[in-house]
Amino acid sequence: MPPKRALPSIEISFFAHATEDREKVFKAAKNLLTEEISNDLTFRRNEVRGYFGNPIMIFKSEIQGEAKVKAFLERVSSRLGEAEKESLQREIDRHLDAARNLYLRFDKQAAYLNNVRFAQSDPIHIRLRVSTAHGSRGGVLETLQSVGLLPS
Question: What's the whole-model pTM score?
Answer without folding.
Answer: 0.90
